[in-house]
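Title: [Solved] Membrane protein 3D structure

Original question kept below for reference.
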Amino acid sequence: MAHYEEDRKSEADLAGAPDHAHLPGMETTAEVQVVPTPSAPKSRWDAIYRSSLFQICVVSALAFCGPAMADAISGLGGGGQATPYTVNAAQCASYCAVAVISLLGGPLASRMGIKLMLIVGASTFAINGSAYYVNSKYGVQWYLIFGRFLYGAGFGFWYVAEAAIILSYPEEGRRGKYLAIWVGARNLGQLVGGSISLARNAKAAAAGAIATSTYLIFVAIEAIGFPISFLISPPHKVRRSDGVPILLAAKQPWRTEFLYLWQTIISKQMLLLAPIGFYSYFYGGVLSTYLTNYFTVRARALSSFIVPSGIIVFTSIFGRFFLDNRRWTQRRRAQIGFAVFMVPSMACFAWLVVNQHKFMGMTKAPKYDWNSSGWANAYIPFYIMQICGYLCQTYIYWLISCFTTDVQGNARTGGVFRCVEAVGQAVSYGINSNVKTKMIPLAINFGLAGFCIPFTIAIIQKVPIWREDAANRPVDYDQEEGVKGAEVK
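Solution (posted by the thread starter after getting help):
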């Protein structure tokens, strides 16, 4: 591979742009501006407040208050309800709204800015818990579906802003660590939610719905997200520890923005990412329905506690020891990281299909409690799949960040990708809202896992071959001979 160091003569390079913005395989459509590094901090608090780590912590806190609480409710199995089917319909409506807003994320981010999008999204967090509470206490199903739709629309704004931040703000060599913090926060929220649920439902050793008062605690935590969202800094005020400025694209007319959006949608990179994006969250509806159909209330409450505990541990290990491993080239990390979660996922899908077939052949569907015979066989593949699902999501955003560009470009890429994710979720929950299709969703999910493998391998082979040195600086590698090339300055 010809050393790209010699060919880079763009204005962005001359202005001090980070070299990884021009790595091979990355596509840039917009005119890029380099935002000068902000002036020296006025105080120690100012230095902390504007640091990239603080921004990731703010996004992680919002992930704790918003999607983590939503996931905690979903982790109860069927949203904690006695049957999962109305909840699955509400989830379907929610992710349809997410898909539409996420698709338009790039143009919206260009006009609104990342900070305002984050604030708008956080303002809708509490609607989620309130919709479940009203349905559980008063049986108002229309509000559950409508409330989840409103939450989904707001979440779409937050989703795009979050993607742009986690792709653009971290320094090189810390992406896996910061992604692990973000994923850990999401699951710390589930852990807290699971603890609450387990404490309030530990004696309910039967099928049925979660205690109604449980939802009020979730609503209170979700409401805290709105004031926290004001702490985020816009890109031009963020100070990275390595001194590398964040790239911003010049504001373009609406027509141009939508042209860039279309180019992103049809780009080879996005087309290769689409299958794993559609697959990555599809398991949510499948596993939530499985948990509701075959486990008691307190077994589901226990699951909502031990699943996030495992996810926090394993995503931290995954980010630190695999995605940020300096001994391997970036492409090698991409290859190994993919195998780490995909191999056990395929094995557990086969396990779940066998279990599902057995349960459907019984005269009466089983309801496993945590001390029931057969609980481990029914639950272990579910548990492994939940962990692998979050490893997959951590990996995907790390993979996308290997082709990072400017903030608006990341908003477009992240928005389109999250649109694909949301469509996958909407389809999953839509299928699972039908009581007669217990095996079909699981079989589809299994097929999607196999289908996405060759496409993901194809884009992995486009990941630039370099590694960080001791100072976290990219070091180029020759593709043909596998020898060390010129150090990136």
